[in-house]
Amino acid sequence: MADDTARFLADSPDRLALLDRLRDAPAAPSTLVRDLDPARRSIQRNLAAFEDRGWIERCSDGYRLTAAGDCVARTHADYLERLARIDEYAPLLTHLGPVHAPPPDLLAGDLVTASEADPQAPIHAYTERLREMDGNRVRVCSPVLSRAFHEAHAALALRGVDTELLLSTTTAQRARELNPLEFAAVLRAGPLDLFVRDDPVPFGLTLDEDSLLLGAYDDGHLQACLHATDPDLLAWGERLFEALRADARRVTSPGALDSA
């Protein structure tokens, strides 16, 4: 029955328009023809089909939605809104695994994506937003380390912001090999708690008390960066971070990294 309802609505945009119009207020067929501009015969045919399905009933003003019709109209409107939101955030979702993507209802915020004209746009957006964070603590997980990210996080450290950083063991070892003195100094003196996990970190996520930065990568390159402040999305991000950190271990010295 549900499949039949979906097909019935999808077969004709006029039916969707008619349902939406009747959500606003009851109306007579002549009013519906004037407002929607289809052929009168099409209006009459769809009204008859709606009546057969129990979606409308006659009233002094013409036709009005029943409770069933109103539920169908609202459900379909929500469905179209979700599809539109998914389409808007597709550049982010395309590069996230299904278990790491926000539910459609939570998709919100400013999205910056890479393009041929500006492949570094998401990186610039990330570092700019990161510098604007004004809390006392941030939690970060990342599949890569880059100089741009390092400099932005160093600026937070200079302000005394505590950072909890989660990397894969391989990424952390690579950072140590590239600059062993700096790596050791950061672990000794910086306001940084480093955690590593043996499995890869499949996305980028930065959280403070009030905002979230979610990064989607492809082959080590940041393709999209989402900045959001919605509390529900922030709570989702916190759960995602904690789930990823559940199998991680803290590293307090360069040597401990090899045994983590």
Walk me through the structure.
Pfam families: FilR1_middle, HVO_A0261_N. Residues 4-87 form the HVO-A0261-like N-terminal domain. Residues 119-247 form the Methanogenesis regulatory protein FilR1 middle domain. The protein has helices spanning 2-10, 13-24, 29-36, 40-52, 67-88, 90-93, 121-132, 147-158, 169-178, 180-189, 231-245, 256-259, and strands at residues 56-59, 62-65, 110-113, 137-141, 162-168, 192-197, 204-207, 212-218, 221-228, 249-251. By secondary structure, it is an alpha+beta fold. The chain has 2 domains: 2-85, Orthogonal Bundle (Arc Repressor Mutant, subunit A), CATH 1.10.10; 96-259, Endonuclease, Chain A (2-Layer Sandwich), CATH 3.30.870.10. It has an 8-stranded mixed beta sheet with strand order 3-9-8-7-4-5-6-10, sandwiched between helices. A two-stranded antiparallel ribbon has the order 1-2. Helix 2 crosses helix 5 and helix 3 (29-36) packs across helix 4 (40-52). The chain starts with a helix and ends with a helix.
